[in-house]
Amino acid sequence: SIQDQRFIEEFIEGKINEDVFLQKIKFKKKWGFEWENYKEILNFAKENKILTYGINLSKEASLKERDQYAAKFILKKIEENPEYTHLVIIGDLHLAPEHLPLKILKNLKIIIPHLIIYQNSETIYLKEMEKGKELDLKVVKLSRSSYCVFNAEPWVKYQSFLIYLMRSKTMDVEDKNLDDLAVVLMEKLGSFFKKKWECNLEVKTFKEYDFLVNLLNVERSYPFFYLLQESYSFFLPYENIIWIPYPDLLRFVEEIAHFVFYEEGKWKREHIFKEDYFFERIIYYAFGYFASKLLFEDRKTQSIKELKKILRERSDERAEKKLQRLKKAIPYIIKISKNFNKKSVGEFEKLLDDKLCFSITRRTGYLLGERWFILFKRGKLSLKDIIQKIPKI
What we know:
The protein is mainly alpha-helical. It has 20 helices and 6 strands. Strand 5 and strand 6 form a beta hairpin. The chain is elongated.
């Protein structure tokens, strides 16, 4: 980062060794990723006497603030030395087209050739996988000046990212596989609720479909296939499987909480997506959201005000299906949220299709979970009260 520039220069110039450098920049305290991920880059710069700069602000800075600082710094260096080759290594979020690329190219006073290289993009990987091209995937050309290279399957990046998030949230976790991470998260939730649940979960990623055969035997299994198709995470109670297609720690915790929901509600022979469980499904999503927010308080969901704004915004038939479905769902979400009880929502599922029911129950559940969390923080709702809200079967 910019605060460590002096130590970066000293390391590149050979004035301090690796151990001293890591100590000076407080690497273990500030960063969640492994040093080995960066070591070869800095050693290459050191061996070839390449000018190297830290362009990140502190972790407390917002993405927008970090974007603005990095863009300003890069622009300055390019304009000072337009004849140099400038290599910028930065995270995925900053590399999104509307972030650094736009800010830099829009404000450059000179015209220079440029190349953007993405690495191990899960979105592009999935598209290539649908074409049957993932086995020997090396590089995909996206445009005249942008490519995506692959040197690992996206899930390798996902697991590293999950571990980083865990560490960045001050959770005491060593490198573990995802099944082990589930155990750690379960223990963390249990410490809040003062309960102990036996965690015999198995975590499946987007390439592991071996559980689908058994899913065919599940009564009313269509909703699970829908969630699979739409790339939503879910918990499959019969197999105690968590399906998580993207590196989203919040969803990971949410699905672990859904396991707790089934355990506490004694839902041994039932699943939440069967008919007549519209009300229960809202509680299901509320509990998952609330539990994830216990661990990560900065989680947010769209408020009623924000949903109303989405409803007012114009969109034509070309709008993505999820947005179209959300717009159909919003009036129901608002109505149910204003008068939430089993009697008032009991007839909705019979009036709506499965996909719309999913949007309504999930979004309404998140709003309810947010309300629970506010009441909990104010001391008006206890964790025991939350557990008691889980409907029993």
